[in-house]
Amino acid sequence: MFNADLLISAKVQDFIKLATKKKMDALQVSTQLAKEFSNEERAAIMDYMALVPKFREKFGIENTAFLLCDKLALEQSTAQDIGRWKSTLWERARQANKNINSETAPTVHDLCCGMGGDSFYLPNDFLTIGVDLDKNRLEMYRYNSKVMRDSDDHTILADVREVAKQNDSECATPARLKADYFTIDPARRAIEGENQRDLRNLTPTFEEVIEISKHYKGGMAKIPPGYPICEIPQGTEILYIGSRTDCRECLVLFGELAQNPNHVRAVMVDKIGNEIASWAFARDEKREARNESEQSQYDHNYELEGRDRIYRTSSSESDLPLGGISKFIAEPAPVLLRSHLFGVVALAHDETTHLISPGIAYVTSEKPLPSPAFANYEILESSEISTGAVRAMLKSHDIGKLTLKLRGVKVDPDQEIKRLKPKGKNSATLFYTRLDGEKIAILAKRHEV
Fold first, then answer.
1. Could you tell me if 128 and 119 are in contact, meaning their C-beta atoms sit under 8 angstroms apart?
2. pTM summary value
3. Which backbone phi and psi does 141 adopt, to 5 degrees?
4. Closest Cα to residue 95, out of 238, 219, 278, 256?
5. Which pLDDT does position 190 carry in this prediction?
6. Are 363 and 350 in contact (CB under 8 A)?
7. Which helix H or strand E contains 300, and what residues bound it?
8. 3-state class of 429 per DSSP?
């Protein structure tokens, strides 16, 4: 059971500092705690201790600082790289907020606030109010706001839908608890027995989020990156945010925060939230209207297992034609995959760019595509996927060190490399994929643009 008073006590935090300094193992920690705490308290402290290095790394705080959280609250919270970049969006709100006295900082409702991750990196002079139905989450929010923002933020124990309805009314909510803007991260529940989540199973639902947005000057809603873009209303700005290797968030910006309405933007950030690159294009209704059952079939066919896991690929037939293998093969960045922008970005650079098989997001072109939007590989040779043919291809190029990438073909990468037994002095990347639906092996070397 969550016990905030226990975890934030000086006694417990001093013990954790000592245990960390002395590098105590779990048995030593358990033995020491048993001297002063009950079994239930000891279990709670040990569970919390496991989270301490995780939240310090996730939020980039000092190695002596403490936040208040449980495992689920920490997992659901926005990390520092995304949070720091998102803080730039709130500066938009400040500049757009011309109707409020310039000496008065904007106020933000953090709806479904959890432990407070979406408030941590707001500009320090912004006023934030956490709203949640869970008392423990609100206690986390207040404590963490003091640590992260040196702010005694207010909280409201209520349904976020009701708080939003009252926000622009003259009664019910005290004026000091009303807000100009909102941020919301609806809860997502996994389907029993499955790892994947039902993208529409949000609380509140996305339809309710749209209604919530009408009671504020603007705001942002975090939704799963795979949420059907065709269901996001016009007039909003859609952002996909991630690093070079992943796409972690989809944000829908409403009102004054949507300074590029009816546009989709993909943003790549570094570990501390600096923007590496971004790409933006007007929304394309034809692309968004792609038959959903067809897309589901693509997702089912091309979701792969194994250590070299990749994101479920997306068809982009409306952007890129089909064709044969050219001089280069390229992997789009995950934020471009999720935003469905990789086709238009590629064509803007090289009009020869095309797919080699429907539904698989490897693209091929006559010249390398721009980095970091794409990871480019110069094609050396291709063959059918058979042990003899692939081994012969590796031998002819003296390949001994091999990286295997998969899309559209299901094999265990580590086991396949062992089976191929590459021997040679050169290194290369081997793609197992499809050419117009048929399995093909493509041998290539990394090309730095």
1. yes
2. 0.88
3. -60, -45
4. 256
5. 47
6. no
7. helix 292-301
8. strand
Angle at 147 between CA 115 and CA 173, to 5 degrees: 55
Whether residue 375 is predicted with pLDDT greater than 50 in this model: the reply is: yes
Among residues 141, 90, 89, 92, which one has the least CA distance to residue 112? Answer: 141
Residue pair 207/170 in contact (Cβ under 8 Å)? The answer is no
The secondary structure of residue 22, as a DSSP letter, is: H
Rounded Cα distance, 146 and 140, in Å = 10
Q: Measuring CA to CA, how many Å separate 369 from each of 2, 320, 335, 356, 375?
A: 51, 14, 16, 16, 8
Query: Whole-angstrom Cα distance, residue 288 to residue 286?
Result: 5
Q: Nearest Cα to 151, choosing from 182, 108, 89?
A: 108
Strand order in the sheet with 127-132: 154-157, 127-132, 107-111, 181-184, 218-223, 247-255, 237-242, 263-269, 275-282
Beta bridge partners of 222: 251
Measuring CA to CA, how many Å separate 318 from each of 231, 238, 354, 427, 438?
19, 20, 11, 35, 21
Q: How confident is the model at residue 83 (pLDDT cuts 50, 70, 90)?
A: very high
For every residue of 220-271, DSSP letters joined together read EEEE-TTS-GGGSPTT-EEEEEE-SS-EEEEEEEEETT-SSTTEEEEEEE-T
* Crossing angle between the packed helical segments 10-22 and 26-34, to the nearest 10 degrees: 150
| CB proximity list for 99: less than 8 A, separation 6 or greater | 217
Cβ neighbours of residue 402 closer than 8 Å, sequence gap 6 or more:
394, 417, 420, 422, 427, 428, 429, 430
Average pLDDT, the chain: 88
Provide the greatest CA pair distance for the chain.
79
Question: In the structure encoding, which two tokens stand for residue 409, read together?
Answer: 């073909």
C-alpha 321/C-alpha 364 separation (Å) is 11
DSSP string, 156-217: EES-HHHHHHHHTSSSSS-GGG--SEEEE--EEEEPTT-SSEEEEEEES-HHHHHHHHTTSS
pLDDT-above-70 percentage for the chain: 87
CB neighbour list of residue 137: distance below 8 Å, 6 or more residues apart: 73, 113, 114, 115, 130
- What whole-number distance in Å separates Cα of residue 73 and Cα of residue 140? 9
N residues, the chain: 449
**Both structure tokens of 424:** 């040679």
Closest by CA position to 93, among listed 80, 105, 79, 110: 105
If one compares 300 and 145, the residue with the highest pLDDT of the two is 145
Q: Please state, in angstroms and rounded to a whole number, the distance separating the CA atoms of residues 129 and 152.
A: 10
